[in-house]
Structure formats: structure tokens, C-alpha cells
Amino acid sequence: MSGAIPAVAVVDTNVLLALWLFRDPVVEPLRAAFAAGLLQPVRSAATDAEFAEVLARPGLFSVEAERQGRLLDAWQSVASLVAAIHAAPWVCRDPLDQKFLDLAFSTQAGWLITRDRDLLKLARKTRRQGLSILTPESWALRGPQA
Q1: Rounded to whole angstroms, how far apart are CA atoms 109 and 137?
Q2: Domains of the chain from N-terminus onward
Q3: What is the pLDDT of residues 96-111, one digit of tens each?
Q4: Which residues share a beta bridge with 9?
């Protein structure tokens, strides 16, 4: 794999929870792809803020503050922070999910990995411009080279 440029990937909050909080084995191929340099995950201030806010929601997951910080740090240590974010030409029905499309558009990501139905519904439109929106399960079947 030497010399290959890793594919840029946006990972939504639900999948981040599966990766970092729940350690769901179904999403472990993503972690392996990050570690192997096959995927370059990206993040923005807005996506970081949402991940931190969801981890901190009282009663939702009951994650103590110290662990919240460790989980956020773990994600931030593998994902590149993107400061310049531009509005994507695609609009998500749920405005809270728009930040993931904007990040994908701004970085020319090849992948947006999500389980969110509103984002998945846009997959056909975004594919024409080089962005594949799919579940982590579908991504694992295809792999980073697809």
C-alpha cells in the first residue's frame, strides 16, 4: 500500500459512538482501515461539538466526564481537523445532519459513513459527484478501494 493516498472519509456521530463508545465489532473494519492508513477520517468543529454533546447527554449513555474526554481525544487523534467548511450542493432533510454533507463536500471525501436514513437517502445524488454515502456494514463489504 506504500505510496497510495488514503481515501478521505466523513464518519457521522452514530458510527463514532459505535466505534469509540460501544466498540461494536461490526464497525471494527473502519478502525482497522484508519490504523492501516487506508482511510483518512476528517472532522470539523461542528462534528466534534455534536459528538461531545451526545456523549455528555445526561442519562442517554451515562458516560462519566473523564471518559467523555478520552473518547473525544481518541477520535480527534485519528481524524484530521478541517477548518474551511463550505456549503454542500446537497441539502439534508434534517438540518442537524447537514454538517456531515458540508464536511464531505469541503474535503472532496470519497465516503460518508452513516446509519442515518436522511443522509442515506441522498446517496444517489452525491454519487454523481464522487461521494458514496453508505452504512459501515456496506462500506466493510466494499472496502476502501471500491
Answers
A1: 18
A2: 7-140 (3.40.50.1010)
A3: 999 999 999 999 999 9
A4: 41, 111
